[in-house]
């Protein structure tokens, strides 16, 4: 019995050891399998990440021919500006940083020259140069135009004159603004009713309003505002001598006059300009026969004959609503009309700051001189005053040193110039032909 019991104990011990070995082997195999699977997953994720990075390079078009040519010819100031731009992708930032490191000698030379000449011009980025030019322009306009005008008014000891038609003009425009405000309040009430009926659309609307407010905040510092549309044009001659030539398509505008027929108009007349702007804005915001609210557009156009115009966005619309209470002739102040602007070829020059009468005169003289030097003919009859239009792109709250203003003058195309020269030459030859003898016709090759 003792031997039998001992045998049972030995068998139990052997079975226990066998089970332990099997368990250890099983545990070891599970660990090895887990390690293998984990390493395989890491390798797969690494390959996916690398593939995604390669795809991002392709999507960003980092190495297109145009960008390679631009990078090859760019200065270190331009590379620095791209590096600091928050919209530049991370991969492109690496390229910009590499360009800056390679331009170490150029940077050192420009810094030494700036210290020697006591001027920072050579160190400014393209945006920095624009801000510097804008600051100089605003300073010139303030000292040359604005301060002398204020001083003249103060020294005259005369009360500000009120235009004789202002009592009639203010109620007329005020009623249209009231109509626009009432129409906007009605639209807001309808929006509120729609939100109550379908609350699921509230987050989308709030998101859009937040985006619009962010865009407006950015426009305070932008040369060309975002979120606004303007007339279509094609640049046919790039900016080489302070101006460019554009081909504008025809488009529709809401227009009103800031002065009556025969009355002079000045860009410094804030009262008339403000009244015209308010009348056009009221039309866009619902003071029309359909109560339709239209989007604000850019630029605000002012002509040399005293008209102010707002571009009307098409959006597939063939007929625009008519202004409320169209009155009198086109040249009655405060009367808004929808008109068509025909296609035109314009020479356009940019300037920044305030649009004063003196600045417009200086910019026009400079543009006409440049056109004459380049042999570009103005598209106006000889001996007549050259017309012009002013484009103002920015809202009033944009800081003056970054505002985008343009002056445009109609010019003739090269085909028109060749045709005109041929007509002049033909006319001159015709005048020089001697009169034929009585009854004797000039010889002709045509029988």
In short, what is this structure?
With about 450 residues, the protein is of the alpha+beta class. The chain is about 55% helix and about 10% strand. The chain has a nine-stranded antiparallel sheet, covered by helices on one side.
**What percent of residues adopt helix (DSSP H or I)?**
40-55%
Mean pLDDT: 76
Strand elements, count: 9
| Secondary structure tally, helices | 11
* Main sheet specs: 9 strands, antiparallel
Structural shape? globular
* SSE string: HHHHHHHHEEEHEEEEHEEH
Uncertain spans: 1-27, 56-60, 439-447
Q: Radius of gyration in whole Å, from Cα?
A: 37 Å
Q: Helices and strands: which structural class?
A: alpha+beta
**Strand numbers in spatial order across the main sheet:** 1-2-7-9-8-4-5-3-6
Strand content: 5-15%
Euclidean distance between termini CA atoms: 153 Å
Would you give an account of this structure?
With 447 residues, the chain is an alpha+beta fold. 53% of the residues lie in helices and 11% in strands. Helix 7 (166-197) packs parallel to helix 9. The N and C termini lie far apart (153 Å). The relative contact order is 0.09. The model is unreliable at 1-27, 56-60 and 439-447 (pLDDT under 50).
